[in-house]
Amino acid sequence: MSPAVAAGSGPEAGPGSRQGPDVVLAGVAVRIGDRQLLADLDLQIPAGQHIALIGPSGAGKTTLLRLLAGIVWPTAGTVQVLGRTTGALRGRALAALRREVGFLRQHDNLVPGLRVAHNVLMGRLGHWSLLRSLWSLLWPQQLDRAHAALQRVELGDRLWALPGELSGGEQQRVAIARLLLQEPRLLLADEPASSLDIRLGHAVVRLLLDVAAAARTTIVSLHSLELLALGFDRVLALRGGRLAYDGPVTGVTRELLRLVYGTEYRALHLDELDLRAGPR
Questions:
Q1: Residue 247 bridge partners (DSSP)
Q2: Which has the closest alpha carbon to 224: 179, 185, 273?
Q3: 167-226: pLDDT as tens digits
Q4: What is the pLDDT of residues 30-43, one digit of tens each?
């Protein structure tokens, strides 16, 4: 019998779950040419839930996140994000949704030629007029808010640094500060620690969950499964674009990981993973 759990069967979210699901996928598929990237996805995510998204390379994790961000569209089924059907959105309606969805990528989150202050203030672009956005490049607006956000990620002294002067971990923390200014309702992160060593990766994901995510619905794609122990409410595992598991962290077993990761199981040293480790 497959270890897959019925979609939506993860643990209940906190009090925010009374608002209804922030994400609903019904019969969703994504195909590009002859490549099937996602297939037969049925999923509900309550408001405020923190979800770890796992799976091997090419499983469809990034495609799923881009789908929820309104960057790609389903070729079958419907995607509802924050009460709106994404495939029907255009123009201002689509921009309004993207303003409420924060997206932290693996890398290249910052504009290299702009100071940290400007990069953080980019979180306000969806809230400002075009004129104010352009003026902010010359005379930074709401600089006190940018500085306060940087202090929350322990980078208050790097306000005028350039991204190239920062370490990889510091750059990701600046991107988290930008999310604080954006104030999204849904937070998506695509392997935010994949280019960092395990210690820095642990710190970045912990910071993301503690500071930026707070009571927000959050989905974090993980490359390193040691990070599952950081206190996620629920795990979604993809394989071949299909949902292979939907349930609590405690339900992740070696049998499941062998099924999900296949030939990558040993390459990623998942046989050495301590599955008994609790949240820390």
A1: 235
A2: 273
A3: 888 998 899 999 989 999 999 999 888 877 778 888 888 888 887 667 789 999 998 898
A4: 999 999 999 999 99
Residue 176 lies in a domain: yes
For 97, 151, 187, 192, the CA distances from 209, given in Å and listed in that order, are 22, 16, 10, 12
CA distance 166 to 172: 10
pTM, rounded to two decimals:
0.85
Helix (H) or strand (E) holding 170: helix 168-182
Which residue range(s) make up the domain with 27?
21-100+184-252
Q: What angle do CA 215, 221, 223 make, to 5 degrees?
A: 135
Phi, psi of 157 (to 5 degrees): -90, 5
**What's the CA angle centered on 245, arms 16 and 267, to 5 degrees?**
120
Which residue in this structure is represented by tokens 């990237």? 37
Amino acid letter for position 245 = Y
Are the CB atoms for 7 and 238 separated by under 8 Å?
A: no
Q: Which residue in 209, 112, 102, 106 sits closest to 166, CA to CA?
A: 112
Question: Does residue 40 fall inside a structural domain?
Answer: yes
